[in-house]
Design a protein that fits this description.
Layout: H1 2-17, H2 26-33, E1 36-37, E2 55-59, H3 63-73, E3 78-82, H4 85-94, E4 99-102, H5 111-121, E5 127-131, H6 136-145, E6 149-152, E7 155-156, H7 157-171, E8 174-177, E9 181-184, E10 189-192, E11 195-196, H8 201-212, E12 217-219, H9 220-227, H10 237-252, E13 259-262, E14 266-269
Parallel strand pairs: 1-7, 2-3, 2-4, 4-5, 5-6
Antiparallel strand pairs: 8-9, 9-10, 10-11, 12-14, 13-14
Helix pairs in contact: 1-3, 4-5, 8-10
Length: about 270
Amino acid sequence: MVEAMRFARKKEAVRDAADTVVGHSVEKTLAKCSGVCYNNDRIMQAGRDGMNKKMIYAVEDDEGIGEVYRGAFEDDYDIRLFEDGPSFLEAFRAGKPDIVILDIMLPDMDGYTVLSEIRKLDERIPVIIVSAKSDEISFVKGLNKGADDYIAKPFSILELMARVKTNLRRANLYVSASGGFTVDRNTYRAFYNGKDLGLTLKEYKLLALLLGQTGVTVERETLFRSVWGEDYVGETRTLDMHIATLREKIKEAGGYDAIVTVRGIGYRFETKAK
């Protein structure tokens, strides 16, 4: 009860502090809302009833800003807050979110180091840096380290919410199948549990086609026509050799044998190892 009242007071204080950064000096904005502007009246309640919420991990050592994040996102998303890099990375290794909001100036481990560790574990999860380091060098460094977006403090919480939606929408270019496989139709890359499989274009097309028909046997003729084209003339074993190489790359990435041979017909993608 006490904690709930404390949170309500914090949320009210932030809401009273500013509508947006427009019309406020940097000093005034920082003093009133710790670098964040929050207008609760303008935040739409999406009402994602009955839907699985996307998970946000936010790494921010300023408790006030963390509570603003919670207040802004908790109705439409699941959100977990972390005050330092090590605790975040421990949770990240145990279960990955859909998107990360990351501060740079953190205790024990700075945000750039955290970002490098994220990219070692997963190359595709969107990361938005939100930092008081607003100089061009910091901005470029963050993007070069693998951030997808960068917002300088002080900022509008509405802008951050819009950036989160935009980055999640871009991430939806990924087509997922249960079992840890994802394919990115935008960059023609494929991943197993976040690890890039390093596929050639034809290997990618084969996996994307099979994954898109999970549990359904795709005939050899269909695979040939879709990947090599109607006019392909060549060794019929080409398909089998590409499948063999694809299986090997999946195995090297720690994956299971998801591609099942259906003799005399074609191949089928399964979401469980048989």
